[in-house]
Write a structure and sequence with these properties.
- 3 copies of one chain form a homotrimer.
- Helices cover about 50% and strands about 15% of the residues of chain A.
- Chain A has 14 helices and 10 strands.
- In chain A, the strands form 2 sheets. In chain A, strands 1-2-3-5-7-10 form a 6-stranded mixed β-sheet, with helices on both faces.
- In chain A, strand 1 and strand 2 form a beta hairpin.
- In chain A, helix 3 runs parallel beside helix 4 and helix 5 packs parallel to helix 6.
């Protein structure tokens, strides 16, 4: 397996492969046996990643997601996240991680549906289980304080990634949120059901996940999906200031507060595992495979078509 | 028992009966032994109901509540709801139920306090237990996706009915919400305590249920009582569009998402049963019977007086 | 121990003592053995307190907090709260307690960090345990309905006191909220972690408690910290009217609704106890003692400096 496949061309190969076959869902044996140990020698702030740009500044590690062409969550990004988390957790000088996107239109649009077994296998490098739900939950339970600074689209596993963060701030003008899995024939499997039901209550969580619609930042704030929607021109300084403020407080207390709040508001591992399994099973079903193929034929996983994914999915279902 | 008693006159007879006696609360033996099986032959979309008007359109069943004179939740309406639910659940072509009211002032104002044993007995036809709390919870747990489209007043069991729905959208201009039971000497018994404590948190739930005040749609949205308050002239098209969108997604996934969210955010059956019992006991107490009588003497259960029920109840208590 | 030490001068002595020694944290043996029984003879509405002004009016006891010079939660205030709660619970004529502040700038700013063992010991007079978390939880579980009418600053244990109330209403213009403990090296120990995680969800609760920032009333309302922010000129009449309305409803139903909501949304005693212990241990640690000293040197626990406590704590940590 080519571990450098990040170009549009390579992803298009995968899309063509899925369009031609329904049997990709269980090809897990072919996953890369990537060895991250050489990279671990470098401190988190100095490491070089394929899909992440990092900068360390007084206790805060700022991470830009830059997984060309549109920040799909695929094996490369998951591999880099695993390596980043391992290094940051091992570095006592780091207390806070800030995740943002190098792409103003896409924070993380969702997983690469053509490579589900591959990115799952990368997640197993950290947690021992082939599931991004458990990778994300690892971050929620980490001593590291995590902040999502959101521009552009966070949908599906992108939404679930930021839901696993400790705090979420988004640009009022450009951030867009969705949990569109139902439209494709699968339940959200990366922790979205666990987080959304707790953050926004039963009614709003069901609207979000059964309706598979796009939500703007203002509505996402009203629903509790994010902490706050802020004007684009103040978001960066707000997050930077908050991150440095927190990083100046004692690490032991930060971890203690996280532990106590997690004991109340973070779902147990087995619930994340169950959701992940349900997504895995559903995504291999004929119904989902057929919906994936139809979506890909209509531009799913391309920048232009996903600018308005909600409409694309609605049109597909109505056919 | 006359199963056609829906006129103002008949209800007034009940009110006069309650005004003259305190012994109606346990007259459950007199409840009708209505046999719904002949009606079950008709598909849900074609059936004729006494208090509901239904229209089926591509996977969505639109239900108008029309229980003259003011949509009180009494035995007729409960009987029809039971029959509707049974038919809809048996019809695989139906995925979504949309409930609205034929009466712009009253969605469901509350239960008919003069016929508590009777409507409870009707509920038992579906669940085996004489409790609307369990009837409503049945809907929450159903594979059917339910949407409340709210104009006018939802108070007491009316609020609890929409709280049992999967989503709630209301007109910003005209919808009014209350959980007024405490003013009448009983706790909310149809699931309101379970849903409100989870949706809006301890402080706001206690304000709503201990204060027994009316809330407009804007405040209900801020408190999480409803998903959203929308302008009256866009509510219908918004809900219709959302309902059809959902109905185009795979039924198995809709059920799966509901199950997983319910496992987190829907209270167990025994808590609904307990609340229902508490309401039943309290409603038969001398204190509640006396408050029911006083309220009825001041126009409770009439259209005009209930336009401002919050004030009526406040005046009563202050006497 | 001098039980009348409420002047600025005496508190300044305590501050000087803490500035000169790190060994005050475990001086619990010296706590006063105050006997409240003589005061219990007087009904709650007529009693005279050192730090509270009370007025009883048709079922409602209005309580003004007046603990000079700035309403710090110290042994005198806790002693008075214990006596007030005991009397009010013993007086069937009282159904509702309304707490407000005699000081427009400070409702309760936080505990007196120079007298932690002393105020904890006073709390034990009610609950048998030296913990204000358990004292506050006692109020939450009480049959008494409690309402916080908030002007000025509620931070730390002040925030936790109002979170223990059944409802919270604040002036839109002047109320300020914070849970600043992490900046001082300790987790919130008076129930803040339990309440905030449930009221506002994981992300916002972590932002509040890890960021230790000030929040205005409008944002506190959006986050669910309070029921509502109201204009200063209408707050008093709103709360008074609501309190009297509730006091006219049957006591048994008020208690029943509280019990059922508490069963859902109030954390168990052991979780409050655990948080209280964590705060107690952390507050005696060298890290926290050092941060307390530095804060006191910069004006902590003085009126002027705490007008902008968030900045003071940020400056301290950045040094």
């Amino acid at each position: 397996m080519n571990t450098n496949r990040t170009t549009t061309e390579t992803i298009d190969q995968d899309r063509r492969q899925l369009l031609g076959t329904a049997a990709i869902g269980i090809a897990m044996a072919g996953a890369a046996s990537f060895d991250p140990s050489p990279l671990l020698a470098a401190p988190a702030g100095d490491a070089v990643y394929q899909t992440l740009k990092v900068r360390k500044n007084s206790g805060v590690l700022f991470v830009d997601i830059a997984a060309l062409p549109m920040n799909l969550l695929g094996p490369e990004l998951v591999r880099d996240l695993v390596a980043l988390i391992q290094r940051a957790e091992a570095d006592d000088a780091i207390k806070v991680l800030v995740f943002k996107s190098a792409d103003p239109d896409y924070f993380i649009p969702h997983v690469d549906v053509t490579r589900i077994p591959q990115y799952r296998q990368e997640a197993a490098k950290l947690t021992g289980e082939a599931s991004i739900a458990l990778l994300f939950r690892h971050l929620s339970a980490s001593r590291l304080v995590t902040i999502a600074q959101i521009e552009g689209r966070v949908r599906g596993a992108g939404s679930e990634f930021v839901l696993a963060m400790d705090m979420r701030f988004a640009t009022r003008e450009t951030a867009i949120f969705a949990q569109p899995e139902a439209a494709l024939g699968a339940p959200p499997g990366g922790g979205g059901m666990q987080h959304l039901a707790r953050l926004m209550g039963r009614g709003r969580a069901l609207e979000v996940m059964l309706g598979a619609e796009d939500f703007n930042a203002e509505l996402a704030e009203r629903y509790g999906w994010i902490n706050r929607a802020l004007p684009a021109d103040s978001l960066d300084s707000f997050v930077r200031s908050l991150a440095h403020r927190i990083a100046a407080f004692p690490a032991a207390v930060l971890a203690q507060v996280k532990d106590r709040v997690n004991a109340i508001a973070l779902a147990p591992v087995e619930d994340f595992r169950r959701d992940s399994d349900l997504f895995g099973e559903a995504s291999r079903s004929p119904e989902a495979q057929s919906r994936f193929r139809a979506a890909l034929q209509h531009g799913f996983q391309t920048r232009d078509a996903e600018l308005n994914l909600a409409r694309l999915l609605g049109d597909l279902s109505a056919q």
